[in-house]
Design goal:
GO terms for molecular function: exonuclease activity. Keywords: ATP-binding, DNA damage, DNA repair, Exonuclease, Helicase, Hydrolase, Nuclease, Nucleotide-binding. InterPro entries: PDDEXK-like_dom_sf, PDDEXK_AddAB-type, Restrct_endonuc-II-like. The protein has 7 helices and 5 strands. The chain is α+β, with helices and mostly antiparallel strands and 326 residues long. It has a 5-stranded mixed beta sheet. Strand 1 and strand 2 form a beta hairpin. The termini are far apart.
Length: 326
């Protein structure tokens, strides 16, 4: 970008415009996505009672799920098994909401004390919209754990001010829902934390992470989500974002990447291959588990064959495999 300030130009109209404070993520992500049928998001309360539908779109989180473990993707998207909120994921949602709402204030009033003062109200709002998060502190009668949890949210918010100066930023979009359909018919969707547009028209996509920055050898995986968003913006607006920026509040690091057309074309090819694998698994009902060290945090081990479990009956029709002759 030419500078940290964002000019009056906007990518508004890319899709639904500014959204709300986000939703609680399940299974270790920072925020969840819509649980509507076909959206690719995990189910909320009562999700198991909804009619199962084949997936119709792909988001960065669900793409990552399939790459991590195809069976996890099935549990979340096809079976819509319920998942418990986690303290880390819920704190991420809370911090995202605070950083979004801070920009409602005039530039000169975007201070760390004001941001921290938003936390109690946003926590109340989150509990009203997602009552299940209150379960996180059900065994905390004296409120000590909750107080420590909120204090950590304050530290994350305060650290952001050492990484960016909100008094010099005027985001074009916040919590922007984007959706694009590729020529192949594959529909991509997601929520971008912040879009900055410089006076020169250059676009910067910014994502907040409440965890720590990955080691350099894992940076490409972290950038996948950002390149996904860059691809969607390019397909919608024919504009390649000038910069992709990941702000890691857990470690105080900022990771940036300046994409080029070849990057976006590679991501598009990868997503097409991924979607074809998802299509085949959907039609065959063959969803393979892929054991990793992340299994220890999975809510679905009771249903996973790797841990002696049995998946629920497959709720979609299965197409018989074609038999050939030698």
């Amino acid at each position: 970008m030419a500078g940290p300030e964002a000019g009056p130009a906007s990518v508004a109209g890319t899709s639904g415009g500014r959204g709300g404070a986000g939703t609680v993520a399940c299974g270790g992500g920072e925020r969840g996505e819509s649980g509507a049928p076909g959206s690719g998001g995990p189910a909320g309360d009562g999700g198991a009672e909804r009619s199962a539908l084949p997936p119709t779109s792909l988001s960065p989180s669900r793409a990552s799920d399939f790459m991590q473990c195809p069976l996890l993707y099935r549990f979340r998207v096809i079976d819509r098994l319920p998942e418990k909120p986690s303290e880390a994921a819920t704190r991420g949602t809370l911090v995202h909401a605070v950083l979004e709402r801070l920009f409602d204030a005039p530039a000169g009033e975007r201070t760390a004390p004001r941001a921290k003062a938003l936390i109690p109200g946003q926590w109340d709002r989150l509990r009203e919209s997602r009552p299940e998060v209150t379960e996180l502190f059900a065994d905390d009668p004296d409120g000590q754990r909750l107080a420590g949890w909120l204090a950590e949210a304050e530290r994350l918010v305060e650290r952001w001010f050492t990484l960016e100066d909100p008094t010099r930023l005027e985001p074009a979009e916040r919590e922007l829902f984007v959706e694009a359909e590729l020529e192949s018919g594959l529909r991509l969707r997601g929520i971008i934390d912040r879009v900055d547009v410089a006076p020169t028209g250059e676009v910067r996509i910014v994502d907040y992470k409440t965890g720590k920055a990955p080691r350099p050898e894992y940076a490409e995986g972290a950038l996948f989500q950002m390149k996904f968003y860059a691809l969607v913006v390019w397909r919608l607006k024919r504009v390649i974002p000038r910069r992709l920026q990941l702000v890691y509040l857990g470690s105080g690091d900022v990771l940036t990447y300046d994409p080029v057309l070849a990057d976006l074309e590679r991501v598009e090819r990868k997503l097409h291959a991924l979607w074809e694998a998802i299509r085949q698994a959907t039609e065959s009902g063959d969803w393979r588990p892929r054991p990793t060290k992340l299994c220890g945090w999975c809510d679905h081990r009771a249903h996973c064959p790797e841990f002696g479990g049995t998946p629920p009956p497959y709720p979609l029709p299965v197409r018989a495999a074609e038999s050939g002759t030698v």
